[in-house]
Write a structure and sequence with these properties.
The longest helix is centred in the C-terminal third of the chain and has 13 residues. A hairpin with a 5-residue loop joins strand 1 and strand 2. The N and C termini lie far apart (about 85 Å). The relative contact order is 0.17. The protein has a 3-stranded antiparallel beta sheet. It has 4 helices and 3 strands. By secondary structure, it is an alpha+beta fold.
Length: about 110
């Protein structure tokens, strides 16, 4: 008798089989989504979202995260607000971007120095 190895099923190119598409098997680091505001060198505010704040702040500092902040370095973290999901973070980001500057200053805890 010859021993035969069981044939391995070829990997599917169907993205629906990707681990990130299966419940409980995300390739993204587990963590909450955050809406954040950065204060730029010129005093302007930048609003964004992330699920990895330290990585995103490093990217901003290196001028790789946003065309807006790249020309306004250095930036400092002014505000964060946790959100339960990516969708909620996007909605809150949009809502903050619609605020007037005085409203954003109140959100940050006071007027811009």
């Amino acid at each position: 008798m010859s021993s035969t190895k069981p044939k391995q099923k070829p990997l599917s190119k169907n993205p629906g089989n990707h681990p990130s598409k299966q419940p409980g098997k995300s390739t993204r680091p587990a963590g909450r989504w955050l809406v954040y505001l950065l204060r730029c060198r010129d005093g302007s505010l930048y609003t964004g979202i992330t699920n990895d704040l330290p990585k995103r702040l490093k990217a901003h500092a290196a001028g790789k995260a946003s065309r807006y902040t790249r020309s306004r370095l250095p930036v400092t973290l002014a505000y964060t607000e946790p959100q339960p999901s990516h969708s909620a973070a996007l909605k809150r980001e949009a809502a903050i971007k619609k605020l007037t500057r005085p409203q954003k200053d109140r959100l940050l805890g006071g007027p811009n120095d």
